[in-house]
Amino acid sequence: MSQVIKVLVVDDSAIVRQALTEILNSDPYIEVMGTASDPYIAAKKIQQEVPDVITLDIEMPRMDGLTFLRKIMTQHPIPVIIISSVSDRGSDNAIKALEYGAVEIIAKPALNTKQFIEESKINICDAVKAAAIAKLSKRKVIQPIAVQPKYSADAVLPKTNYPIALTTTDTIIAVGASTGGTEALRTFLEAMPPDAPGIIIVQHMPEKFTRSFANRLNEICRISVKEAENGDSLFRGRALIAPGNFHTLLKRSGARYYVEVKDGPLVNRHRPSVDVLFRSTARYAGRNAIGVIMTGMGDDGARGLLEMKEAGAKTIAQDEKSCVVFGMPKEAIKLGAADFIMPLEQMAPAILNIIGKKFE
Fold this sequence. Notes:
Layout: E1 5-10, H1 14-25, E2 30-36, H2 39-48, E3 53-56, H3 65-75, E4 80-84, H4 88-100, E5 104-107, H5 114-132, E6 172-177, H6 181-190, E7 198-203, H7 209-220, E8 224-227, E9 233-234, E10 238-241, E11 247-253, E12 256-262, H8 274-284, E13 289-293, H9 302-310, E14 314-318, H10 328-334, E15 340-342, H11 344-358
Parallel strand pairs: 1-2, 1-3, 3-4, 4-5, 6-7, 6-13, 7-10, 8-10, 13-14, 14-15
Antiparallel strand pairs: 9-12, 11-12
């Protein structure tokens, strides 16, 4: 039997607390053990019973969420999911929260459309399940059985035979990550030289937060990093991060690589989806691509990585020891999709070595 995940909801809005409680309690594997309107009340409840996961707002009275998060992570680490507004300020603070040790970011549910509410349920419940098995937590739960509909990449990009005849030899690096991926991507991209091959990334993250994340990486990396916009070119020294809530595909016109940003259904319960990115990379870059799958829960990207391998690309999966959640890489490895399995710190040097051998 799966262990029920106990969640403490911390938010100053009574409406949001009620909405989150209803969303989380709708999942049979999750139970809201309590709610708190500010960190002081939350601290008292934690003293009485330690939750498996905390959902935390950032902007609250008496003590802000970032200060509370730092106290939690330094005194008694508990997996924390930031549930924040999608304002520019909220997005920037949420990225800081990831640096302070938060496991995931989720956009506050806007209870205005049926589709948004249903997708919020999927995203929030999946985030809680991923946080509960993150390595910083001492509590472990068995991964629950998914009950929501699950679309494949066929819903966005039909599969074709690979590879298409190529007219360029430029290497493209396609990367997929989820829980724990923000820090993994920082480590990976910081190790890339200014003339690194073009990199296209799907990190499961809500809309607008990806822009703050890309801006932060652009400040600290030697390569240029930006949130992808439809039609953006992909070239050496540039990394593009798929915008939250939109699928991002690699395309090619002659020798020019560019990206297509488009709407579509959730694929593997995500939008953007790693499988969609990897399939498009297999189609348009083929053997001139390198696929990388990093830490994250679920199996998004596993089949896409296999398609890249079948198209002639070199493929890499992050090893279990260096993953926050060994889900996505594990599923890719089980399918035989990974040519190499390695620690996070070895990925960038290994890729540069592969590219160097390619031109020897």
